[in-house]
Amino acid sequence: MKLKGKDLLGIEGLDREEIELLLSTAESFKEVSEREIKKVPTLRGKTIINLFYEPSTRTRTSFEIAAKRMSADAVNISVSTSSASKGETLRDTAMNLGAMRPDCIVVRHSSSGTPEMLSRYLSCPVVNAGDGAHEHPSQALLDMLTVRERKGAIEGLKVSIIGDIVHSRVARSNIYGFTKMGAEVTVAGPPTMLPVGIERLGCRATSSMEEAVRGADVIMMLRIQLERQSESFFPSAREYSRLYGLDETKLKNAKEGVIILHPGPINRGVEISPEVADGPYSVILDQVTNGVAVRMAIFYLLVGGAREEHHV
Amino acid sequence: MKLKGKDLLGIEGLDREEIELLLSTAESFKEVSEREIKKVPTLRGKTIINLFYEPSTRTRTSFEIAAKRMSADAVNISVSTSSASKGETLRDTAMNLGAMRPDCIVVRHSSSGTPEMLSRYLSCPVVNAGDGAHEHPSQALLDMLTVRERKGAIEGLKVSIIGDIVHSRVARSNIYGFTKMGAEVTVAGPPTMLPVGIERLGCRATSSMEEAVRGADVIMMLRIQLERQSESFFPSAREYSRLYGLDETKLKNAKEGVIILHPGPINRGVEISPEVADGPYSVILDQVTNGVAVRMAIFYLLVGGAREEHHV
Amino acid sequence: MKLKGKDLLGIEGLDREEIELLLSTAESFKEVSEREIKKVPTLRGKTIINLFYEPSTRTRTSFEIAAKRMSADAVNISVSTSSASKGETLRDTAMNLGAMRPDCIVVRHSSSGTPEMLSRYLSCPVVNAGDGAHEHPSQALLDMLTVRERKGAIEGLKVSIIGDIVHSRVARSNIYGFTKMGAEVTVAGPPTMLPVGIERLGCRATSSMEEAVRGADVIMMLRIQLERQSESFFPSAREYSRLYGLDETKLKNAKEGVIILHPGPINRGVEISPEVADGPYSVILDQVTNGVAVRMAIFYLLVGGAREEHHV
Question: Which of A264, B131, B152, C260 has the least C-beta neighbours within 10 A?
Answer without folding.
Answer: B152
